[in-house]
Every structure is written in structure tokens, then in C-alpha cells.
Write a structure and sequence with these properties.
Length: about 375
């Protein structure tokens, strides 16, 4: 394990965060903004592909086959926007950008769904329709028109890495896996390898059930694949989406690349091999009508999904000093800032804010 800065062995922190994906990182920033002390533990990028480290980072207002308006969109977007901008100021670099999303209406059924959906005020507010038949400048086919909407993107790997370095330099991050058996959770405080904390927050994504406290939670984790393609100059600075999406982006070394995604396979229902998943994804991308460039790489990770697509947050029932933040599914970039800030306000003894009721798992959920 790479050596980190000297650990704060003698200090008792307010919060020990286990896992530095989007959930743990957003919580770290939210605690920092409140002036609460924390220490993070995560094995780092060498441990393998965490969901957050390969997420495309997109926030799309209308999603899915029924063009559904994203859950709590109008509340969550301004929170996320302000949050990531504040973290950028702290990091001295840009990771969050707005971009245009073009959703191709590839068949008359989808056009009919939109015609109905557009009567919904929230949907009409976020999108305008381009008439069809339409072939846009990039050559993508949209025989029944296309929706144009504002979207956002977080450079997830870049933001996580910059946050990790910042906290490592401040002696606030240890590179390690936490074995639940090594955690000492008592009514008067928690400890792990000499680190003492008032509360431990478990932010381990799809690895949730490797810990004993969550065996009764029903998980519906989803494997997701993305492809990295050679640059496609015609794509421009926008997302083309039609059941699968293409996005001009940069890879981990800063080189131009096109990200293409994504697959959704519930782990419990059997997951195709990577070559099968890639063939399925390429077939969906072919429907966009663009000439695809060569595939450089395929990446795969597991999205943490709790039954009912629920975000879960707050104290873990029956376990002293333990809380959790999980269930971000395919929408971590949009949801994590709000729920992390809410949890930080709950953990702040000066405020003790109530946990957002949408993130409290009902008793029958255990
Ligand atoms: C292909 C794909 C594309 C995606 N695209 C998007 C997108 O465009 N927009 C979007 O909003 N979301 C997207 N997502 C979803 C997004 O990645 C998740 O919502 C989010 O990253 C979940 O974050 P998390 O922190 O809960 O989990 P994770 O990212 O899994 O992080 C958990 C962390 O905990 C660490 N950990 C686990 N166990 C331990 C332990 N015992 N001790 C210490 N550390 C531990 C892991 O190493 C990891 O770093 C995508 C996901 C996939 C797979």
C-alpha cells in the first residue's frame, strides 16, 4: 500500500468516511464547508474500477425510454451546480461544465411520448424540440425530430483524483481497505486503527454488502460498460443521445477521446461477458446514424442500486456510531451533493438537521 502523509492517530475527528467515490468525496467537501473534521479511508485507484472513477459524469434532464424528467431535477441541479463550483474554487481547477444534450427521436413511438410529455410543465421548461425529419450537422439521424436540452458534466475521475490529492496532502486520507471487523463501534465513539471518530459513515458503493450490517438490504446493483473511442471531430461539444450516447471528452491523460455508453445489467439477473456487452452497445450506437470511430478501450464497473432506486442516508439502525450514504445508482453526480450536504448538516451537533425523508429507508426495507 502506498505510504500517505502521517495519519492523525491521536486526533478524534467528527467523521471517519469509508470510501472516496462520489458519495464519500461529496461528504468530505460538505463537512469541510461546515468546518467539521474528518478522515477518509479508501484504497485508491489501484484497487480497481470504482463506479465513480469511470462515470461519464453526465446530468441529463430527461432520461430513459419514456423521457422522464429526472427526479427532483429543479431542486438538485442548482445545489449540484453551486457545490461543484465551490469545490473547483478549493481545487483551483475546472471539472464541471455545462453542455448541450441532443436526444434523437428515432421512432414515432418516442415522438408520441414526447408530444404527451411536453404538456408537463417541468419537461417543457427543460427542452425544446427541433422538427423532424432532421439530420443535424454531425450527420446523426433524427427522423422524428430531436430534443435539445441543457446538460452538465462532471469530470468524475479528474475531480476525485484532485480531491484525493488535496486530502492526502492535508493528512486527511489513508489509502487502505477497511475491514469491518477492525472497526470498533461503541455508544461513546468509534475507532479504526488508532483513528477515533464521533461517527463512521460507510460510503462503499456496490461493496455495501461486504459489511455485515446491511445483509437485509435488497440491492439491485447494475453493471455498466462504457467504450472509449478514437476522437470524432464532427461530434462537437455536445452529447448525442438516442438510447445510447456519445460524448467528446478527455481520457485520464488529458487526450481527446469519445465516451460512448452505457449498458445496464442488473447483477442478480446475469451479466453478459464484456465482448457481448460491447456488441450490444455498438448495435445501439449504430442507430444514432453517425460513423463510429475505432474502439480504444472498454471499461466496466458496478453502479450501487438499492431496491426502489432509493438513496439511503443517515444513521444505520441498531449500530452505534455508524451512518451510511449510498444508492446513487446512475445519478450520483446530480444527487450526491444534496444528500451529502444534508447528512453533514445532520452530523453537525450545532444543527442536527433531519435526514431528507426520501433517503430514510422504511423499516420494511431492511
Ligand atoms: C458505466 C457507468 C457510467 C456512469 N455514468 C454516470 C453518469 O453519466 N452520471 C452519473 O451521475 N452517474 C453515472 N454513473 C453512476 C455513478 O458512477 C454512481 O452513481 C456513483 O459513482 C456512485 O458513487 P459511490 O461513491 O456511491 O460508489 P463508488 O464509486 O463505487 O465508490 C465507493 C468507494 O468505496 C471504496 N471502498 C469500497 N469498500 C471499501 C472498504 N471496505 N474500505 C475502504 N474503501 C472502500 C471503493 O474503492 C470506492 O472508491 C455511471 C456508472 C457506470 C458504471
Amino acid at each position: 500500500m502506498p505510504a500517505g502523509p502521517a495519519p492523525q492517530v491521536d486526533a478524534r475527528v467528527d467523521v471517519l468516511i469509508v470510501g472516496q467515490g462520489l458519495a464519500g468525496s461529496c461528504l468530505g467537501w460538505a463537512l469541510e464547508e461546515r468546518g467539521l473534521s474528518f478522515h477518509l479511508v479508501d484504497p485508491g485507484p489501484a484497487a480497481g474500477p470504482a463506479s465513480s472513477r469511470l462515470a461519464a459524469g453526465l446530468v441529463t434532464p430527461l432520461t430513459g425510454p419514456r423521457l422522464t424528467v429526472n427526479w427532483r431535477l429543479e431542486q438538485l441541479v442548482p445545489v449540484a451546480d453551486a457545490f461543484y463550483r465551490r469545490t473547483e474554487a478549493g481545487l483551483g481547477a475546472t471539472f464541471w461544465r455545462s453542455l448541450e444534450i441532443v436526444r434523437l427521436l428515432l421512432d414515432p413511438g418516442l415522438r408520441a411520448i414526447w408530444d404527451k410529455r411536453s404538456r408537463q410543465a417541468a419537461a417543457a421548461r427543460v427542452s425544446r424540440v427541433l422538427p423532424g425529419p432532421l439530420v443535424n450537422p454531425e450527420g446523426a439521424a433524427a427522423p422524428h425530430g430531436a430534443l435539445v436540452m441543457p446538460g452538465w458534466q462532471l469530470d468524475c475521475p479528474g475531480w476525485l483524483e484532485a480531491s484525493r490529492r488535496r486530502w492526502q496532502q492535508a493528512g486527511r486520507l489513508t489509502e487502505a481497505m477497511v475491514d469491518p471487523a477492525d472497526l470498533d463501534l461503541r455508544d461513546d465513539g468509534a475507532a479504526w486503527r488508532g483513528h477515533r471518530a464521533t461517527t463512521v459513515v460507510w460510503c462503499t458503493g456496490a461493496a455495501l454488502q461486504a459489511a455485515p450490517w446491511f445483509s437485509a438490504v435488497t440491492c439491485r446493483h447494475q453493471v455498466g460498460d462504457v467504450l472509449l473511442l478514437e476522437p470524432m471531430p464532427a461530434l462537437g461539444d455536445r452529447v448525442i443521445n438516442g438510447g445510447a450516447w456519445l460524448l467528446a471528452d478527455r481520457d485520464a491523460t488529458g487526450q481527446p477521446v469519445v465516451r460512448a455508453g452505457a449498458t445496464y445489467f442488473e447483477t442478480a439477473r446475469g451479466v453478459p461477458s464484456p465482448p457481448e456487452a460491447r456488441a450490444q452497445l455498438l448495435a445501439r450506437l449504430a442507430r444514432l446514424g453517425l460513423e463510429l470511430s475505432a474502439v480504444r478501450q472498454q471499461q466496466r464497473a458496478v453502479r450501487p442500486v438499492i431496491a426502489g432506486m432509493k438513496v439511503v442516508s443517515g444513521p444505520v439502525p441498531g449500530v452505534p456510531r455508524l451512518a451510511w450514504l449510498n444508492g446513487f445508482g446512475s445519478k450520483g453526480v446530480l444527487k450526491a451533493p444534496h444528500f451529502a450536504r444534508n447528512l453533514a448538516a445532520h452530523l453537525d451537533s450545532r444543527q442536527r438537521a433531519a435526514i431528507d425523508p426520501d433517503a430514510v429507508l422504511p423499516e420494511h426495507g431492511w
